[in-house]
Amino acid sequence: MLTKRIIACLDVDGGRVVKGVQFLNLRDAGDPAELAAAHSRAGADEIVLLDISATSEKRKTLLDTVRRTARELFIPFTVGGGVRSLDDASAVFDAGADKVSINSAALSEPSLISCIAERFGSQAVIVAIDAKRNTDGSYEAYARGGRTPTGRDAVGWAREAEGRGAGEILLTSMDRDGTGKGFDCELTCAISDVVRIPVIASGGAGSAKHFAEVFQQGHADAALAASILHYGMTELADLKRELAAAGIPVRWPC
Amino acid sequence: MIAIVDCGAGNLTSVRKALDWLGQRALITSDPQQVANASKVIVPGVGHFAATKTLESKGLKHAIEGAISGGTPFLGICLGMQWMFASSTEAPDVSGLGIFAGECEHFPAEVKSPHVGWNQLHLANVSRLLRDIPDQSFVYFTHSYRVPKIKGTVATCDYGGTFSAAVEREHLFGVQFHPEKSGAVGLRLLRNFCEMTC
Which residues of B have a catalytic role annotated? Predict the structure, then answer.
């Protein structure tokens, strides 16, 4: 049976893993290559590395980090953050990534999705959507690391991304990100039910129960875990064991 | 020297990285001569079946057919495995190697497609490629087309019905999943392939 994936996410800045709460207050959490290998050994189904560096100087460090992280990693490896062109994507693939995640660049230039998909295949293109709930209950897509509202409906944008050749959607709830209060199951379900491609839920994981909820009620195909893993709050093995006990198909033992 | 054939589709780096880790000498190439001289040939690849046309136009198909008939062990990964079959509904005008009978078809509409993620192998027959790999092992898939279960099927997988996850005949092997992305199980499979003498 196809299993639900637990994806370990590493937010990196200048070659180090950091993790913020609601996009702020960054704390240092370690070396990306070491953490990726440790998560893989512990049972992570994939690794996502998101570059949150703002400057081009730090950006150069990224390719080295990707190369170093990819060298001894034999599970799927996605790199995102700052990928703005086919050339950026090519460089990241050359450094050892299997997939790229694009966000702001896709919002401002949607043809980038098909451009990368045609060259590297849809399976290599993840469109990341940072969504925030509006007062009327709809969800709006935000650009630039959650700083800029786009006025675009997140659900509509997900469908468009699929139509343009995205292979997966990485959906982050800005309202829940870093809070540990649980995933936004309503948001996840709203998008997962209208696209045919896998949806990766992100933002808000605080316990194994939250993962079970987003798989069962949110219809997510995969879920992202970051700070919950880095600070030892939850061991991946324990998380997977609990999910298996709750009847959710997971790769365990692996 | 193991030749990793560049058909212009898919992540060749990750396959080479895995072989490096196993201590194998491997070369990414699109040169028919290097393919002809290789001790083993791997055709990886993800993407559209039509991409395999490149192999024909560059003389690689001919070189691969020559190597295979000379007994060189061959491994097709994902699109590379699909190419070992006669044809695919994805590109009806493109013919594959035809090593195995059967046609590659899209997943039925009832299931999400592509089939992405970790799914289980069900061992179906004695296999050299899958030596020491336990039944029900998890491996990583990402594909929208699949081939039916055939005589040469050594492992199946269930998603929108049963399909061939691994096929094998003599020195010819194909896997629909990505061993280079399937953790310890995948590395074991690649090691089995690398250690074959014929």
Answer: 78, 178, 180
For residue A229, is it within any domain? yes
A33 within some domain? yes
Q: Taking a C-beta distance cutoff of 8 angstroms, is the pair B128, B73 a contact?
A: no
pTM: 0.94
Kindly indicate the confidence band of residue A8, based on its pLDDT and cuts at 50, 70 and 90.
very high
- Judge whether B159 is closer than 8 Å to chain A, CB to CB: yes
**Phi, psi for residue A168 in degrees, rounded to 5:** -155, 160
Q: Is residue A35 part of a domain?
A: yes
pLDDT per position as a tens digit, B39-95: 999 999 777 788 888 888 889 999 999 999 999 999 999 999 999 999 999 899 999
CATH number of A239's domain:
3.20.20.70
Does residue A201 contact residue A224 with C-beta atoms inside 8 Å? yes
Number of folded domains in chain A? 1
Structural contact between residues A27 and B146, judged by C-beta atoms closer than 8 angstroms: no
Taking the Cβ of residue A253 and every Cβ of chain B, the question of whether any pair is shorter than 8 Å is answered with no
- Asked casually if ipTM beats, i.e. exceeds, 0.90, the reply is yes
